[in-house]
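Fig. S4 source data, part A: sequence.
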Amino acid sequence: MNTRKLPYMIFRKYLSLIAFLFFIFGCANPNNPGDTLGLSKKLKGKWIAKAWTGELHEEWKIGEDGWLIQEGHYVENGDTSYSARTKIELIDQSIILFSVIKNSTPKIFEAKEFSTDGFTVENTEYRNPFQVEYRFIDSENYERIITGYEQDSLVSTLFQFKKAHQK
């Protein structure tokens, strides 16, 4: 073995190791809500719930920026009459849910309760809804309860989501 090349070979190995570690740790997103909040394993996938005279269709996934997003549609008689996009982020130690309903004002909710069984977000500046609760039943089912005022009556609506399996 050529001893003059030994320092160069050691330098290359260390440089390769440093480059590898930089790649691994540089690509990690420390604020990934799937890891931080544990929600991606509860919500990730496609879901369907009966709603009024139609169905709610949702897909939860990790977005390009590393946060959990949901795209949802209300389908009635084959027509989509409602679509929304929801995003859950951790901002300054607060869990924030952003909801953008097509042709409507975006809404922002803050988590008031959070556990492995579910979470509740609310914003009392809104009348309907002012509170949204997620309950994780099992890996195939979750519930969402939306509470708000319709006219002067307090109304809660329960949606029971089932995992949609592709055939």
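Fig. S4 source data, part B ends here. Helices lie at 6-27, 33-36, 40-43.
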